[in-house]
Amino acid sequence: MMEMPIVPFLIIFPVIMACLMFVARAENVRRVLAFSGAVVIMAGSVVLAVQWFMNGSKLMTLYVETEVADHCILAAEILLMCVVTFLSFKYRKYWVCLLSIIPTCAMVWYELSGSKGLAPEDVMVRSDGIGLLSGVVGEYHIYIDRLSVLMCLIVGVIGGLIAIYAIGYMQGYHNHHKDVEDRSYYFMTILFLFLGAMFGFVLSESLLWIDFFWELTSVCSFLLIGYTREEEAIHNSFRALWMNLFGGCALAVGILYFALQYGTVSLHVLVAMGEAKEFGAATIAVALIAFAALTKAAQLPFSTWLIGAMVAPTPSSALLHSATMVKAGIYVLFRLSPAMHGTTTEAMIAFVGGFTFLATSLMAIAQSDGKTILAFSTISNLGLMVACAGVGHPETIWAGVFLMIFHAISKSLLFQDVGATENSLHSRDVEDMHGLIYILPRLGMFMFIGIAGMFLAPFGMLISKWSALRASVDERNIILVLFIVFGSATTSLYWTKWMGKLVSHTHLTEAKMNDVTKPTETLSLSVHAVLMVLLCMLFPLLSSIYVNPLIKEMFGKATGVLPDNILVVLVAIILLVFAVPIISFVYSRKMTFNRKGAYMNGVNTGDDRSFVDSFGERKTLWLSNHYYKDLVGSRKLMKPSQIFTVSVLIVMLVIIIGGAIV
Amino acid sequence: MSMTEIILVVCYILFAPLLGGLLDGIDRKISARMQRRVGPPLLQPFYDVVKLFSKQVIIVSRSQIFFLLSYFVLIVLTGAMFFAGTDILLCFFVMSTGATFLYFAGMVTSTPYSTMGANRELLQMLAYEPAVLLTCVGFYLAEGTFNVSEIATSKYSAILYLPGFFIAFVFILTIKMRKSPFDLSTSHHMHQELVKGLTTEMGARNLAIFQVTEWYENVFLLGVVGLYIVNASYYSLIAVVLVVLFTFFLEILIDNTSARVKWDTMLKLSWGVTIFTAGINLIILMIIK
Amino acid sequence: MANIKRSPWLLHYDGSSCNGCDIEVLACLTPIYDAERFGVMNTGDPMQADILLITGGINAQNQPTVKQLYEQMPRPKVVVAVGVCACTGGVFKECYNILGGADTTIPVDIYVPGCAARPQAIIDGIVKAVDLFQKRLEEHYEKKRGQGGNEVSANG
């Protein structure tokens, strides 16, 4: 078995960076450090991928003996519990600490008691005839396959870029929010710590490690949301904390129950046993872990924490609450999907995901705050991914993986852009972005690309949606089909609405505004935009060389989701969609025009921006989008959807657990 | 791509505007007769477009033509892809991308009527999109493929499996063809809604491009209606022509016998009809197929 | 050269009229007179209109509006004054607020007299306007061609 030093490096280096960030209080030093650290992390994740490819891109299992690391993690787990307990006492939310103390104590008890129960060999004997566990030799802790490499790349590249962006952004943020104490060092510390936790999470195979990193990401998110220490921020951060810790409890219970029954904490053994469908404890563990994933992915009824999380500075929204951390839930579901296929858990996860997709995209229509729209849309897209994972069919996983890739990039781009726009425009309301392309051309352009990536042909999200639809028809999942069909209509509505605002001619007569975007921010934004367009072009290639084998790895069979002729057509559309604007630009440039005033019933005052009213006075024209708040506002829809999903979840969990025990 | 498909695509690109314009002329003639008038000559739509092309171009916003041309190209592409026999879902995705560009063309001027019309256009998109996507799902369930050429050469007509989907599709066709009671964003012929709604700031050549694109789109949509009927036998083509003409007549009849509704009524009606007819059909189809 | 005789689109503006002429204008579109036979369409949008049909006199308040609507129409364009008020100010001529007929504000090409003008007369006026319209279009093109035809070449 070969050792890959890059793996512990990826986990430990960000933690070291975090310490450095905490120590280096001098602004300039910190900036240089953060920039180089982020570059190293990006390079590290790429090195991991390359090294792994060089080794023939096989499954890799590492680190069987991890006495020291286990103890470190145990200590860190207790430390984490202490932090949560301290903070919940400090802010008088006493009951929240229980959600941390109980599972941590249980985990510590399990590890210290050494009740490892049965050896893995026993499990193999018990599941003979399945042949799924043939690869399992011992209790290894790190596991590298295509999915984890992909996650590492997403976390590393996007995380690194966002860290670079954060350097410039935090400067602008504190110029814009004078009332908030400048604790940038703290912010960067948590950001890097989170990156380490996330690498650990996606590379771990031991469920105990997964549980620890899971809790660590929850706490990082909590600390970042509370960054401003304003009352609303603290309130929202505790909401995020308790919901995530609640999910963490379910995760811990699932893991411990499984571990006590079968004496193993290997994720893959769990999946294999779940797939065999004859082990009750595995079924229960899968259901509980999947439930935990729902909280992490902010699915209904737990969506409110993600909406509240938008009070945090933008880099944390981009990194944790959209591009990576919430994807941890999706990642777990992808891992579990073979085990969920054809079970009641599948029905539960697919239903909740599909319902969330539709309900939150409806609620997004009624929002006008840029970040809130992004939050709702994140939840909604996560819902689609959850549904894809829940169905657990190779095709849906294929679609889900692509959704994850494209969503990570375009959402991260959008969040960063909205953040940068807010620093320049002093508002992040979509109504104020009227004519952004003329006021702040660069930021407007990036935003346009980002939104186009979310729903327009031929960008990846749309194609992924296409295959999700097809796969759910293949699965005969009629409810999911309806959710996707109606959900994608509502999704296009709010995105198109926003895009329309960007291109409208400006309300203000003065042309450009002062663009205070820092070079580091621009760097990150441009890389994102280029990546998105590139991925869109390389989409067919990516599918055949990476994602199809990934599916094969997971399910043991490959399915060509996209027929060849579709790929040709796709490439044609891509070329065309990029060519049309250029051609029509050239064409329209040659034309001669005579300008005229806008039609305002003949009472246009001449500048197209105001008209003469019936008293003979000048009235300024102000155009606004429609929001249909009475029809689809979150105030109206959120509570009923939460009640509905809670009851669905309770009923389903009772059925699953009851069914498994009986 | 086979020879027939190439011929079909070329025919579509060359003759769809002629056919679309002719249908528009028939529409105006029949509408006039329904109102006991003589009505304009059959070729009136062509006269209009030729005139529009020869008028002075005056504009409110330079970028409008850019969006309109994108709209034009994408809709032509939609139809070309459809008649080339490719994936029907992809066709509709390209169509909705085209429709988005039309929305931008309305929004970009930042003027009151145009913007209001564009907002309503968006609502119309919301109203018809589920039915359009379900149509594709229906074809996939009935024929096991999204591929138009395979659907067209299947043994039995798709409508045998998909009567509910057909009703939903014809229902939203009223929205798509901008017929009363759903001509909210902009209306045809003599009707005026929000002055000219989405097209208020389009004059001369811009309006002509819009008009021609509509013709392309209508031919494509009627093609989809035909896809419900066509099967491997050549005799089915006769049925296709008859059903398409009947559907077209039905739209004119609806146009002339109903008053414009409010947007929320449109939304509720179209979603309701979609869920009711296509949904029930979907359940049954999923059970039997 | 395009024959656009067959597609006159109207913009109907009601000045300070008594609404008699307006009713007659609308009557032109009803089944009995059916102006759509000639391709006449009543559009509300100056940008799409070829013929400005104006009824009623011009007063101090609506003068800028009429001017603006006229300016917003693309060339070539024709103005038809319908009814005696639009022609000269009619019975309101001596009113304190009336400036006179439409020609006090914009160049009028066709005068359709009558109080109120009869639909037959209005249609006759439109038909005359269409002839003039055709002539103007040709002149418009001649001029363009003389100048090097910027717009024509853009047309392809």
What CATH calls the topology of chain C is Rossmann fold
- Percent of residues of chain B in beta strands? under 5%
Please provide the count of β strands of chain B: 1
User: In percent, how helical is the residue content of chain B?
Assistant: over 70%
C-alpha Rg of chain C (nearest Å):
16 Å
Q: Tell me the number of strands of chain C.
A: 7
Biggest interface reads: A-B, 61 and 61 residues
Shape of chain C: globular
Number of distinct helices of chain C = 5
Distance from first to last alpha carbon of chain C? 14 Å
Instruction: Tell me, briefly, the overall form of chain B.
Output: globular
Question: In which range does the helix fraction of chain C lie?
Answer: 25-40%
What amount of the residues of chain C lies in strands?
15-25%
Low-pLDDT stretches of chain C are 148-156
- Helix-strand pattern of chain C, N to C? EHEEEHEHEEHH
Q: Strand count, sense and closure of the main sheet of chain C?
A: 5 strands, parallel
Which secondary-structure class do the elements of chain C indicate?
alpha/beta
What multimeric state do the chains show? heterotrimer
- pLDDT < 50 stretches of chain B: none
Mean pLDDT of chain B: 87
Indicate the CATH architecture of chain C.
3-Layer(aba) Sandwich
Characteristics:
heterotrimer; B: 289 residues; 10 helices; C: 156 residues; alpha/beta; Rossmann fold; five-stranded parallel beta sheet; 17% strand
Write the layout of secondary structure elements.
The complex is a heterotrimer of chains A (662), B (289) and C (156).
Chain A: H1 6-23, H2 27-54, E1 60-62, H3 67-90, H4 94-113, H5 120-126, E2 142-144, H6 146-176, H7 184-203, H8 207-225, H9 231-262, H10 267-276, H11 280-296, H12 304-308, H13 314-323, H14 325-340, H15 344-365, H16 370-391, H17 394-425, H18 436-439, H19 441-455, H20 460-474, H21 478-503, H22 519-537, H23 539-555, H24 564-590, E3 594-595, E4 610-612, E5 618-620, H25 629-632, H26 634-661
Antiparallel strand pairs in A: 1-2, 4-5
Chain B: H1 3-34, H2 44-53, E1 58-59, H3 63-83, H4 88-107, H5 112-143, H6 148-152, H7 163-176, H8 204-229, H9 236-257, H10 263-288
Chain C: E1 9-14, H1 20-28, E2 41-42, E3 51-55, E4 58-59, H2 63-72, E5 78-82, H3 83-88, E6 98-100, E7 110-112, H4 119-146, H5 150-154
